[in-house]
Write a sequence for this structure.
């Protein structure tokens, strides 16, 4: 089944990024050259990320004697693994892409099994098989990874699938390739798996013995992580995918959450009618400018004056330019020194609202105050009393706990497929 439906183009492109891996890359390339796969339907793309060792000379020597098309792309400056892999994706000609890091290698049947799987299942975006981890020093086999079927619920608790997998080029480009906005310290393959799962792409698991081999050694990228690196990656993935990866608050992470800027509270007006002879825009919060107060924390009362002779159609309260968990204790309107009774409804982009409590999982918290009937109201002062219960990283820890409890509630509502089949059989007395 190793025949490309695209004429004059290989079926499979093996993408190998390289940065100073002269000690291992020859074994990686040779494992592809010796694979049980039609050479006419295979190409190797090596992207060198401005190496300073002799790996480029070694790759060029291999190219001269290879019976398979090998293309070497040289980055002028070091761009990092994410951009280097994306360069390989863009330049690949194959319908299927297999990612192989230069310190790993594949078995003889690896490409054949992966390609046959995707050829038989056109509705699948990718597939992977078990990966054997081995110790570089002793050459002894250690654990087996990537050895469970694809499951979004399991992925949200942590990564268990390696980058050595095969993808449809069309699909991985549609999905956005590897995320260039990620902190460039690892887990880019994990983020891609999450994105594919979240967007409903099918990913297949090839049961059986390991088809590729992961080298455990002191130069592995993840070996250089410290707690702050892990926290930064968890923070990014939690924000992007709404995960509940446990986050430990550190000084470095506090700085990441709290950039050097003023912490502000703002109120915006949407107005109707006219002011100074100029018609206002009912669709925008544009009059005249947002009223701004500085944040001091704890329980705070904010008084916002409204310009005279203005009909207010809607208010947008921006409680803080940071993660925040707060309570609205009081919302009052005044006109000519006296309190005026105005009926209103509140909507928000908060993650959770309960008993005037608002939990925001992003740094753009908004609370909308709509007046009943959509008509404009005249008042000259708005008073909002808030109680800031948590801000910054402490809120984010609360968000993770919320996601964890929500996931548990959802899992309790799910019924196991095998259990469902058993109940149906019992109901209809099917043997």
């Amino acid at each position: 089944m190793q025949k490309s439906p695209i004429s004059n183009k290989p079926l499979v492109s093996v993408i190998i990024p390289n940065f100073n891996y002269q000690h291992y890359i020859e074994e990686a390339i040779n494992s592809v050259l010796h694979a049980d796969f039609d050479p006419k339907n295979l190409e190797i793309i090596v992207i060198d990320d401005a190496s300073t060792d002799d790996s480029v000379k070694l790759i060029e020597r291999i190219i001269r004697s290879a019976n398979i098309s090998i293309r070497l792309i040289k980055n002028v400056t070091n761009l990092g693994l994410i951009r280097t892999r994306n360069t390989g994706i863009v330049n690949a000609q194959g319908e299927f892409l297999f990612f192989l890091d230069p310190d790993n290698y594949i078995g003889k049947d690896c490409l054949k099994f992966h390609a046959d799987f995707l050829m038989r299942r056109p509705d699948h975006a990718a597939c992977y098989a078990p990966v054997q981890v081995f110790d570089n020093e002793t050459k002894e086999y250690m654990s087996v990874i990537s050895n469970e079927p694809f499951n979004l619920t399991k992925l949200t608790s942590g990564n268990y699938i390696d980058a050595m997998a095969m993808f449809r080029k069309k699909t991985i480009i549609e999905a956005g390739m590897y995320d260039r906005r990620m902190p460039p310290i690892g887990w880019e393959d994990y983020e891609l798996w999450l994105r594919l799962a979240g967007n409903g792409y099918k990913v297949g698991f090839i049961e059986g013995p390991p088809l590729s081999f992961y080298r455990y050694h002191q130069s592995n990228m993840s070996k250089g992580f410290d707690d702050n690196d892990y926290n930064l990656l968890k923070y990014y993935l939690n924000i992007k995918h709404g995960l509940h990866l446990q986050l430990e608050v550190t000084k470095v992470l506090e700085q990441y959450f709290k950039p050097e800027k003023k912490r502000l509270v703002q109120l915006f007006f949407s107005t109707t009618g006219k002011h100074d002879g100029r018609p206002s825009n009912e669709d925008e919060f544009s009059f005249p400018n947002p009223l701004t107060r500085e944040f001091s924390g704890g329980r705070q009362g904010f008084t916002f004056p409204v310009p005279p002779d203005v009909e207010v159609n809607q208010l947008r309260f921006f409680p803080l330019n940071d993660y925040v968990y707060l309570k609205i204790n009081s919302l009052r309107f005044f006109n000519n020194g006296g309190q005026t009774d105005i009926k209103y409804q509140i909507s928000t982009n908060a993650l959770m609202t309960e008993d005037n409590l608002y939990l925001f999982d992003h740094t753009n918290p908004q609370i909308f105050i709509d007046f009943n009937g959509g008509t404009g109201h005249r008042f000259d002062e708005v008073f909002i009393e808030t109680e800031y219960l948590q801000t910054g990283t402490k809120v984010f820890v609360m968000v993770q706990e919320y996601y964890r409890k929500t996931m548990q509630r959802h899992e309790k509502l799910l019924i196991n497929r095998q259990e469902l089949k058993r109940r149906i059989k019992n109901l209809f007395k099917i043997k």
